Amino acid sequence: MRVLIVHAHPEPASFNAAMTRTAALELRAAGHEVQISDLYAMDFDPVSDRRNFRTVADATSYSQQTEERFASDHHGFTDELAAEHAKLAWSTALIFQFPLWWIGMPAIMKGWIDRVFAIGQTYGDGRWFDRGMMTGRRAMCSLTVGGTSDAYSERGAYGDLSSLLAPILHGTLAFVGFNVVEPFVVYAPGRLDPAERAAELARYARRVVGLETAPILSPTRSDHFDRGLIRKPFGLRVGPERAVTGSRRR
Amino acid sequence: MRVLIVHAHPEPASFNAAMTRTAALELRAAGHEVQISDLYAMDFDPVSDRRNFRTVADATSYSQQTEERFASDHHGFTDELAAEHAKLAWSTALIFQFPLWWIGMPAIMKGWIDRVFAIGQTYGDGRWFDRGMMTGRRAMCSLTVGGTSDAYSERGAYGDLSSLLAPILHGTLAFVGFNVVEPFVVYAPGRLDPAERAAELARYARRVVGLETAPILSPTRSDHFDRGLIRKPFGLRVGPERAVTGSRRR
Q1: CA B1, B4, B9, B11 torsion-angle sign
Q2: If we measure between CA atoms, which residue out of A75, A202, A148 comes closest to residue B225?
Q3: Are A104 and B110 in contact (CB < 8 Å)?
Q4: What residues of A are in contact with residue B134 (Cβ under 8 Å)?
Q5: CA–CA distance from B241 to each of B35, B113, B245, B250 (Å)?
Q6: Distance (Å, rounded) from C-alpha B140 to C-alpha B159?
Q7: What gap in Å lies between CA B72 and CA B169, rounded to an integer?
Q8: Which of A97, A123, B54, B132 has the greatest number of CB atoms lying within 10 Å of its CB?
Q9: ipTM computed for the complex
Q10: Which residues contact B129 (CB under 8 A, 6 or more apart)?
């Protein structure tokens, strides 16, 4: 695997940082290649606007999609973003490592997506879901959560975590074509004692080394939807085929 | 009403900008007061770390919650954030105006929440949901969405929009105590002709002027949850009370 880890935590001694160090160490020991975009260390600017581009498609009014499409056609992204596009193109797997802030990514990471996942780089012109430009790759969110797993369950005050992550897992990662691996979550790392921390890091090491075979979320197929992204009628057919029993292969 | 509009769009000629201008004009004409935090115009920095604070609670390791609590106790936020806290304290209603990017807020707005909604300013020490520090106020998201309403329905490829917005509406705004008004959504504004744009702005004008009486999402009551934020058992009682018919008031 060639793994790109996008890492967002301001404290190098944090549990998130330990997780990324563990991932890099274990992946390299297993013969995989790793690059890390450590967003705080890079002083990454998450604000998306004309600063993304060297080119200008329309100087009178700023449309992000227009500028992204034009820049993709004319090598018009700034060096900072082109470097991230190159890492994405190089990678076969992408890991987002972050603490959950307000039930989402820290802004520095949300802005990495806003700016890097541009039209013509990850999706566009009908290339989405299983036709997205990131098909064939895997993506995983690895996150720490301040609360308990109970608080993020159906019975909890926040609700089920995987549903809350749908904008990232489905609307973003699956949308651009990734096979989305089940998120790896460490709850309340601040309350763990050293032995428990070590156990969680060991559990994470197993996950990242097994990333190629880890369970993925059920994929969304673009042929289930029309051009307007509305689910097509299921089209139940009443006819001879439905009477066939035994093998269901076609 | 004293209304704080937090606005995030890089283009002053955008439909989002027209919505915020309309809101400010109509609210003031109706006798309300308005302040606007125009995040792109302010060049707001959305990255949250030690830059938030003039104080230092722990110089050896950065814990955002520790620093926020300390800063709240010692007037330790930078002038930039203290100004936003003062606007929040002044306001009786909060509007977030933004284009939906990757099924979420643009990073510049997510970072406004990351940095401004600090412990001791909006929540903390058991003050959440109906005990949050923003109780008695209303909040509303007003957003534009590139796709159609069908694509953001139960049948659509992205799923139901109000569920997708749960991290913001419930996990953030309701969590800090706001009464959360039903979101105002304009779908595919780029495809509207001038008459349709004017009609949408008029619809928005009616909503903002009626913000005090607009429908709110059903509130989450903290007494439904224990300290671990797990829903308490419903506690069905079998006894004489259950046999009573007629009035259900206790």
Answers
A1: positive
A2: A148
A3: yes
A4: none
A5: 52, 46, 9, 10
A6: 21
A7: 25
A8: A97
A9: 0.91
A10: A157, B174, B175, B177, B219, B220, B221, B222, B225
pLDDT, tens digit (0-9, with 9 covering 90-100), for B197-230: 999 999 999 999 999 999 998 877 777 777 777 7
Please tell me the distance from the alpha carbon of residue A58 to that of residue B210, in angstroms, as a whole number.
38
Which long-range CB contacts under 8 A does A11-18 form with residues at least 24 apart? A11/B61, A11/B62, A11/B63, A12/A41, A13/B61, A14/A99, A14/B61, A14/B62, A15/A144, A15/A186, A15/A189, A15/A190, A15/A192, A15/A197, A16/A97, A16/A98, A16/A99, A16/A144, A18/A197, A18/A201
State the DSSP H helix or E strand holding residue B98, giving kind and residue range, or none if neither. Answer: strand B93-99
Fold observed for domain B2-219: Rossmann fold (3.40.50)
CA distance A234 to chain B (A): 11
pLDDT given at position B244: 39
Instruction: Give which of B7, B53, B230, B232 to mutate to test A binding, by max A Cβ within 10 Å.
Output: B230
Alpha-carbon distance of B31 to B26, in angstroms, equals: 9
- Assigned token pair, A66: 């227009």
Task: Give me the CATH code for the A2-217 domain, please.
Answer: 3.40.50.360
The radius of gyration of chain A's CA atoms, rounded to the nearest angstrom, is 20
Tell me if A179 sits within 8 A of A219, measured CB to CB. yes
CA separation for the pair B143, A213 (Å, rounded): 39
Domain definitions of chain A by residue range: 2-217
Asked whether the predicted pLDDT for residue A239 surpasses 60, the reply is no
Partner residue opposite B156 with nearest CB, options A153, A164, A229: A229
Q: pLDDT tens across A15-67, in order?
A: 999 999 999 999 999 999 999 999 999 999 999 999 999 999 999 999 999 99
Amino acid at A121: Q
For residues B78 and B156, give the distance between their C-alpha atoms in angstroms, rounded to a whole number. 44
Within 13 Å, how many C-alpha atoms sit on residue A193's CB side? Answer: 1
| Three-state DSSP class for residue A72 | helix
